[in-house]
Amino acid sequence: MRTTLLVAAAIALLGIVAGCATQKETKTAEPVKVETAQAEAKPQPLRQYLDTPTGRWLVHDTNRPAPPIITPGDTCGAAPSDAVVLFDGTEDSMKANWTDTNGNPAKWVFRDGSMESVAKAGYIQSRQQFGSCQLHVEFATPSTVKGSSQGRGNSGVFLQGQYEVQVLDSYENKTYPDGQCGALYGRAVPLVNASRKPGEWQSYDIIYHRPIFDKDGNVTRKATFTIFHNGVLIQDHVVLEGGTGWINAHAVTDYKAHGDKGPIQFQDHGNPVRFRNVWLRELKD
Questions:
Q1: What is the pTM of this model?
Q2: Coil, strand, or helix at residue 33?
Q3: Is 89 domain-assigned?
């Protein structure tokens, strides 16, 4: 009986040892299988294609058409080779490219290489019409300071004859912020006031994408503006929510359907503001 019990115990002990050994082998085998599965599931680099207006191209494809080459201006602010030059500082350029709003000769005067607004001259506008564009324009408010707020060096740059980027002597001149220099009039306050002193030449570089309307006159894509004032970003891809026209002190205008193109206009607000070096690059929609 004792011998039988000893044999049974020995068999049981061998079973436990064998079971532990089997369990240990199983534990060491599983991670190998997991690692193998992970290695097999590792994503491989993709051959990426880009669909463009000129075709379907691989990333870093040397056969892909390169952008056209243009020659930049010789100096800062000078027109590049693909620009439409609207005013080059000559009287001939003014007469050839600018009229009043009725298409008649403008009443603005040519003086010292610039176009200058005079009393009751009305707006001046480009003969050519444009839609989305990159516009460069330089301006100077009067060196002799007269008036305050909106009565001091007031003018405006209008895209498509519709949407105003305010021109104002905003050097130490308090006014409502959405009407200071660089504002989208009544709509968007500039990020900073980058104005130079009265009489000094200043610049706007405006990236404008026009609004789009459907056949019923409803706006389906609103206009956007990016503006640099004297090289400083003051409007950062701002969506224009409506018109910039004046109704009264605390009202704004809405969009009104218009054509795909319109003139560049400079405003006569009763102040002798000057403009020079006006050029434009048309942008595709």
A1: 0.81
A2: helix
A3: yes
